[in-house]
Amino acid sequence: MKKLLLLVITSLIYFTSNAQVINTERLRIEAKENTWQGNLDASFNLSQSKTGQSLSLSLDGQLSYSRQRSKWMFSTGYNRRTFSKTNVLGNDFSVFNHFQYAHLRYNYNWKKRWTIEAFLQEQFDQVHEIDIRGLGGAGLRFELLNTDSASVYLGALYMYEYEKNSPLDSTVYHQDHRMSTYISAGFRVKHYLTINNILYYQPNLLAFDDFRVLLETRISVRLTKKLSLNTSFNLIFDSEPPETVPTTRFNLSNGFSFVF
């Protein structure tokens, strides 16, 4: 187990990531005691039209390990998009976008409904001009509701953020203190159908007009015991993005998830 944990931490240092805000609720796999459990999400899209050809590949993986009142969770992902076409001079060219992320989280069951959380995260995002973003923090998670058909959790964590951006061929560094608050709600509509929603609010503690909001909905249909079909929609608002990046972005994706 120690060797596997070392490998996970090494992977965290090696990978850097991309998404502006990572939905860490995806890490919360119900692992059996003293057993590693995980899942792998993958999606692939290829399209061709008169404007050109586009290719998209996305991979996400999660691992979880529980022991008594402690729980370790690790997630890493990679996404790459390519677009190729012929310009007016007849020359082919491509526009690339890729990002990577890695997230390590520790939970400690403090009281009946209270959990202490601590995390580390690294990100890289080419299209949103994030050369590197490093995060570290800790806080509390509260169980508001937990039944067979529904669960609702509230969380509030302090996090330190280091970020390097390269907008317009310049380099900008940020070192901020943020609060990451969230509400997570999951619903089991049928034994094969679940809907999960998460809303994050992350203000800068020294400048509250600098904040980020992430809203994500994920619908999962279980096809077999280990294979599910997923549809996800996420909306991100960043009040202070790099100069050439829009404040509002959204994404709709489909893919499969394999539990192991």
Describe this structure in words.
Helices cover 5% and strands 70% of the residues. The protein is mostly beta strands and 260 residues long. The protein has one domain: Porin. A twelve-stranded antiparallel beta barrel has the order 1-2-3-4-5-6-7-8-9-10-11-12.
Helix count? 1
CATH level-3 fold name = Porin
How helical, in percent, are the residues?
A: under 10%
CATH architecture group name:
Beta Barrel
Poorly predicted parts: 1-19
SSE series:
HEEEEEEEEEEEE
Question: Span from first to last CA?
Answer: 17 Å
Using the CA coordinates, give the radius of gyration. Answer: 19 Å
The figure for the number of domains is: 1
CATH superfamily: monomeric porin ompg
CATH class, named: Mainly Beta
Average pLDDT: 82
Give the strand content: over 45%
Structural class by sheet pairing and helices: mainly beta
Overall spatial form: globular
